Structures are given as C-alpha cells and as structure tokens.
User: Which sequence fits this backbone?
C-alpha cells in the first residue's frame, strides 16, 4: 500500500518584470506530477539539471510551496502543512526526512555530532541525555562509525563520513520515508559505494522507503525498484526498473540511456553510432513526443507497470477513458 | 632506442606543497609520455594529484609555496626551467587547457568574441578581420549554432554545454599540439557530456593533437581514451592501453575501483565493493613501501615490494609493486 501520494503536483514560480514588477509569466518547475510511494521500496527520480526533480523532493518535505495539487500522507492531506505545529501533522513531519547533496552545509559547523544528531530526537522523542547518547552511538554504528565520533565537529570528518552522518541523522527520528537528493554526487566512486551500501542496509533493517533523486542513471539503477524519468517539469516515463532500462519507450528516455558512457572500450564505436542515431531521432521526432508548446504529453499506460508520455492518438472518447483509467490506478 | 621524441615527456615529476617548513609531494615521481594523435587519460579519485599534475605542466603554481622537481620536455625544452614570459608563449599557443568549470574560466564581462580573439591577439599576428574569421571558424568547429549571434553574447547567456564549447574553442584557438583537459565534462549532464566527448574525439582526429584527459569517471575513460594512467596518492599505479586496462586490470586499486561502480543488483545481499580505510593525507603519506598496502590489510606484507616501482607486466602494461600477483578481494579465495 502506498503511504505517500502526490496528486497532480504543480510548482510554478512567477517571473516578474516590466515597470510595475508585475507577474509576466511562470516557470513551471513541476507541472502536473503523480507519484505514490510504497513502504520498503526505493523510488528513483531521474532527470537532467533543471528538470524539476529536486523541487518535487523539496515540496514533499515542505521546503517549497505547492502551487496546486495535493500530497497525501496516510490518507491525510498534508499539502503545504509541513511547518504546521498541529498535532495531526506531527507524524508527517517526523516520518519524512531528507538527506542533502552537500553534507557539509547541511550541518551546523559549531555543533558537535551528538548535538547535530540529537536535534531530531529532541523534537520528537522524550529521551533522557543518557538515552540520547546511546541512540546516537547506535546510529553511528549502523553507518560504520565509532561512538567517539559524536564528540567531534563536522569539519573533522571526510566528505564520505559526513554524508554517512547525514544518513544517520535522517534515520534518527525513525522515519518512514527519506528523500535523498543526490546523496552521493559529490563523492568519489569508492566512497559512494560505501554510502550506498549503508543506505541499503538501513533500508532493510528499518523497512524504510527512499525517494532517490539523482542525475546518475547507474546509481539509480543500482538503488531503485521503480523509476520516473523527468523532463521539463513532467514525467516522460514511469515504471519498474526493468521496464525503464530494458524497454524504454519515450525518445527522451532512450536519449538519456544511450548517453551513459559504456564501460567496455571495445564497443566504443558501435556505442557512439547508436548514440548519434538516437540523438538524430530525438531531433527529428521532437514533435511526436512533445506538444506544440514543448510540453510533455500526459502519461498513458503502456504496459502493466509502465507508463509513457505519448502523443494521444486521436482526441476522442477512447483517450478520455484511458486517461481516467491511468489516473485512477496510479 | 627510438630516435624520435614524444610530443610531451614528463620525467620523474614531483610537486610539493609547503606545510610550515616541509614540502609534501602531491605528485610524487610521475613519468609519462604523450604522443601525437593520442588521448591519454589520467584517472584517480579526489586528492590523488591528477589536477596538480596538470597545473604543474602548465606552470600554474605559486613558486613561493610549491617545489617542482623533474622535467617536462616539450620540443627539447624543459618547461620547468622557463621564466614566466617564455612560459606565457607556450601556454595557449603550444599547450591549451580546458578547465572543469566553464563559468569560472570565462570572463563574465567579456563577449564570447572578445574572449576567443584575446587568445589570438596574444599568440598570432592576425588582423582584426582575420581574427573574426578565425573565431567564426572555431565556433563552427565546436558545434555552436548561429555563431554570428552567439559571439556577441556574454557567458551567462549561454547554457553550461555551450559555455564548455566556448572554453574548448579558446583552447583550440591557436591549434596547440597539446591539450590538457581537466575534468571537462564533470559539471555537465550526461547527454551534454556525450556531445562534448564526441567533440573532443572529433577535434583530435582532425588536428592530430595529443590530449591529456584528466577525469575521475571510468565511463569517460572507456569512451574516449587510447591509453590510461591510474593515479593513487600521487603516484601512477597502473598504465596500459584502454582495452587492456578494462579487460585485464592488475593493480589492486584499479580492480577495487572497477568493482565499486554501481551496477544492477544480483539478489538482495549484493553490495558494492568498498575499499577498506581512507586515502592517506599528504602529510601522513608513507615515504616507503606500497601506498595501497594499508587499504588491503589481508594481503601479507611479503607480497609488497619495499620500494615499489612500475613493472612492465606485458607490452605497454605497467603496474606498480608486486602485490597484484597475490591480490584477491577480501573474503574471496585467490
């Protein structure tokens, strides 16, 4: 069962200009996105810079305001309610946490690790100082660090260690969903491997869900069960990992996948030819996959667990039915 | 011995940074050659000294706080002996450089045309008209659409991929025989990365120059390089032609790195390979012994050499230390 549902989410930023500084137009950072997150699963959100993937994560956790659309947490409408102190939203605040790309700037440099990590605990639990300490030690241990680390300051750690502390802190409030926004993009390959391993171990141990936001298709493939590909603020394709990677349908997905560098230098030439073929196809068929305003079409059911944003065949009754059907099921 | 000299020859280069009164070597005894018509990739993780190597070749270090030893031979000249004035004739004219951050390496107050023609003003005696023609030619070469309009724009008006193309155009302006590209696609999206890499390979085919490509991304290496040098803690630990390196990686570091690339999971308990420990800091680098030894503690001490050197294990394939012969991953049989 999905415990978090995002329905037709739109986040638009006004562009002001003119003499009177009036609103001239909108940047449609997120423009009608549906998403549902099940417990224990990892949901990958992929897109290039500017596609709106981070905005979705920030809106779910309440760092950005939704322009329209709704977010439901366990049936409760929690849209734009993250800052509310009302009791009925308390669970939502506690259960949704975030890991940021840059661990350094997400920690107060003047606080020791124990204080950094105790903050979410103080907010949601009545721990005694002794209990807090025990819990911090326990959390540090699951990300492979010594309990002594709690008396150090953030700058005393390497980038990978800091990111692991970031993961441990996100787990501190015992959440159900962690939004991980490019958690390993600033890390080296071998350090990235470590952080990803810990994230997966914690997921197994606590039955967590992740909303894993990344531009790195390899990392997303490694971590995710379900994937959505974003472009221009909308989903172009959504489905299981197998469906997206083995059987991509939208030209944008194909283009992204073909651009991933191939680890086999012997097939370099063939890979380049294929990539340029897809690129040419993308240029030639843009009108087939985007409407005259350059907007991505609505998602349509392609297969059982696979939705693709394709051009509606005929604007007639059958399409309307199709749309209602997909909207209802997702 | 071959009579002909390589395009660029680096002999036993050491670059030390000053901490107090002691110099610590970020690049420690690197020897490399670059030939015409070749892309040599230098791959390693942050802090391994790969960028310091590039800036040492270009002479971009502050002599007060750095100590550079060894030789960088280009056309029978040791670049490290040159004074600033002579070096400036080499930079841009003979050796072009492409940096990671295109926004940081472009002047925000100058139009694209001014920035490219500046490189031509310094190093050539073309007149205004000829320079304009050359700028247009360059912009076309790097695949910028509508060059007449774009060259009147400022850097902030272009996208990241376009800016990087402009930076490449500047590096190419004087047709340098050597190009050093330091992480040229790291800040870019995959689709743009693919375009820029294609562009670099095409340009290299056209001009026949030698390119040193510095990157942390093994995928980029596999897509573009002819030859690869893997760096760890200031030293080259493995050097081989690209097919050989990916088919037969030998050094424990190279093998570990290739193993930690995210892949599709095979079963629930499948985990990525993690390299034990952390990269030693410059001050704590052991002067002697295999620098990778502390990160593979399950390999017996006898497997390492006392003073590891590069051994040629097969033609053109060099590996440092002897520990690769006994290496196996932890928990795995040999």
Assistant:
């Amino acid at each position: 069962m999905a415990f978090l549902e995002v329905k037709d989410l739109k986040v638009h930023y006004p562009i002001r200009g003119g003499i009177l500084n009036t609103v001239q137009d909108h940047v449609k950072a997120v423009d009608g996105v549906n998403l549902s997150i099940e417990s224990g699963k990892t949901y990958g959100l992929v897109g290039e810079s500017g596609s709106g993937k981070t905005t979705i994560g920030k809106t779910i956790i309440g760092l950005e305001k939704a322009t329209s659309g709704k977010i439901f947490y366990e049936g409760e409408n929690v849209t734009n309610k993250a800052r509310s102190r009302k009791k009925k939203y308390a669970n939502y605040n506690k259960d949704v946490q975030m890991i940021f790309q840059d661990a350094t700037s997400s920690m107060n440099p003047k606080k020791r690790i124990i204080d950094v990590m105790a903050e979410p605990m103080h907010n949601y639990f009545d721990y005694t100082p002794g209990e807090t300490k025990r819990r911090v030690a326990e959390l540090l241990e699951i990300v492979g660090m010594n309990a002594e680390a709690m008396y150090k300051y953030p700058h005393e750690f390497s980038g990978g260690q800091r990111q692991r502390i970031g993961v441990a802190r996100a787990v501190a409030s015992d959440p159900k969903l962690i939004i991980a926004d490019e958690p390993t993009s600033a890390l080296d390959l071998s350090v990235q491997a470590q952080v990803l391993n810990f994230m997966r171990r914690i997921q197994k141990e606590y039955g967590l869900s992740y909303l894993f936001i990344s531009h790195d298709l390899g990392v997303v493939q490694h971590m995710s069960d379900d994937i959505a590909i974003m472009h221009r603020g909308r989903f172009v394709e959504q489905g299981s990992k197998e469906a997206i990677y083995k059987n991509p349908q939208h030209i944008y997905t194909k283009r992204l996948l073909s651009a991933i560098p191939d680890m086999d230098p012997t097939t370099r030439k063939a890979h380049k030819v294929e990539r340029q073929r897809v690129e040419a196809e993308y240029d030639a068929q843009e009108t087939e996959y985007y409407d005259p305003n350059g907007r991505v079409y609505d998602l349509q059911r392609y297969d059982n667990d696979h939705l693709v944003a394709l051009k509606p065949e005929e604007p007639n009754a059958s399409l309307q039915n199709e749309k209602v059907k997909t909207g209802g099921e997702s | 011995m071959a009579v002909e000299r390589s395009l660029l020859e680096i002999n036993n280069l050491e670059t030390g940074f000053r901490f107090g009164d002691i110099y610590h070597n970020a690049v420690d005894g690197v020897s490399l050659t670059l030939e015409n018509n070749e892309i040599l990739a230098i791959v390693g993780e942050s802090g391994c000294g790969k960028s310091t190597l590039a800036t040492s070749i270009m002479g971009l270090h502050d002599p007060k706080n750095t100590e550079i030893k060894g030789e960088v031979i280009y056309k029978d000249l040791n670049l490290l002996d040159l004074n600033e004035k002579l070096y400036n004739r080499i930079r841009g004219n003979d050796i072009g450089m492409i940096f990671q951050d295109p926004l940081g390496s472009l002047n925000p107050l100058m139009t694209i045309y001014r920035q490219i023609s500046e490189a031509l003003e310094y190093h050539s005696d073309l007149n205004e008209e000829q320079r304009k023609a050359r700028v247009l030619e360059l912009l076309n070469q790097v695949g910028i659409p509508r060059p007449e309009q774009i060259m009147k724009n400022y850097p902030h008006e272009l996208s990241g991929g376009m800016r990087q193309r402009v930076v490449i155009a500047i590096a190419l302006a004087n047709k340098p025989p050597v190009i050093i590209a330091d992480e040229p696609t790291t800040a870019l999206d995959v689709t743009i990365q693919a375009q820029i890499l294609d562009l670099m390979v095409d340009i290299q085919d056209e001009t026949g120059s030698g390119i040193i490509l510095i990157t942390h991304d093994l995928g980029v290496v596999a897509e573009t390089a002819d030859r690869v040098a893997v760096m760890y803690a200031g030293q080259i630990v493995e050097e081989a032609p690209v097919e050989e390196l990916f088919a037969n990686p030998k050094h424990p570091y190279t093998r570990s790195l290739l193993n930690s690339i995210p892949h599709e999971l095979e079963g629930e308990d499948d985990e990525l390979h993690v390299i034990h420990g952390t990269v030693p800091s410059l001050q704590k680098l052991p002067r002697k012994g295999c620098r990778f030894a502390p990160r593979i503690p399950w390999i017996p001490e006898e497997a390492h050499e006392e003073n590891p050197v590069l051994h040629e294990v097969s033609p053109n394939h060099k590996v440092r230390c002897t520990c690769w012969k006994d290496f196996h991953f932890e928990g795995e049989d040999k």
